[in-house]
Amino acid sequence: MAVQHSGGGEVSSAIRASHEDRDRVVDVLSAATADGRLTAGELDERVGAALSARTLGELAVLTADLPALPEATAAVAAKDVVRIEQEGASTRRGDGWVVPRRMEIRSAWGEVTLDLTRAVITHDTLHIDLDMRAGSLKLLTRPGIVVDTDALAASYAEVKVGRAVDTGAPVVLRVQITGEISWGQVVVRAPRRRFRRKA
Questions:
Q1: Which of 18, 34, 38, 78 is 20 to 30 A from 95 in CA distance terms?
Q2: What span, in angstroms and rounded, lies between the C-alpha atoms of 92 and 111?
């Protein structure tokens, strides 16, 4: 079996996929979700399959029913650097946001929440450069995401990293937080479960 390669020719579907190949497929899936072609649940399922795909054939199946992503759109689908600058405000990144390679966060008297549980992960690392005063940074994680705060300088601040539960899931994202926080807190945890009341 052969699949169409981005260069125009056909290559064997058994060829091993590269990080660039996986990133390209995730871009297509993200754009398809924004267009309404995929639901959030389908996006989550296909992105997981793309990140664990070993061959080009496995990747091709995930986008076989979707139009190709134009190069111009692909170029802006995932930014290399995202900057957040705020004072006395709150910022949240939620479902479907595309995780960049690097974030620069400058915040005073505010809160920044990064929900990674249903984010579109296109890179294997995220570097967060933090400069926070009297505020909080919250990261909501899921299995396969590892967070390192060892290089973060904390002054009159609290850094709480929830204990990761070993589920055997492969690591899909490593988050490294550096910089400085004073009079505030950094919290890394899984999302809280919501329990329904019995009728």
A1: 18
A2: 8
Per residue in 58-116, pLDDT (tens digit) is 888 898 898 765 543 444 445 678 999 999 999 999 877 889 999 999 999 999 999 99
Could you tell me the CA-to-CA distances from 19 to 16, 42, 66, 99, 139 in Å, in that order?
10, 21, 20, 15, 25
In the structure encoding, which two tokens stand for residue 196, read together? 């329904």
Phi, psi of 106 (to 5 degrees): -120, 110
Q: 105: closest CA among 121, 86, 79?
A: 86
* Integer Cα distance of 40 and 29 in angstroms: 10
pTM over 0.70: no
Q: What per-residue confidence (pLDDT) applies to 2?
A: 47
CB 5 within 8 A of CB 25: no
Per-residue pLDDT tens digits for 159-175:
999 876 666 778 889 99
Nearest C-alpha neighbor of 151 from the set 120, 175, 118 = 175
Minimal CA–CA distance to 138: which of 173, 94, 186, 180? 186
Beta strands in 66-142 (DSSP E): 81-87, 90-93, 98-99, 102-108, 111-115, 120-121, 125-133, 136-140
* Half-sphere exposure (Cβ direction) of 12: Cα atoms closer than 13 Å: 4
Query: How many C-beta atoms surround the C-beta of residue 59 within 10 A?
Result: 22
Cα–Cα dist 127/120, whole Å: 16
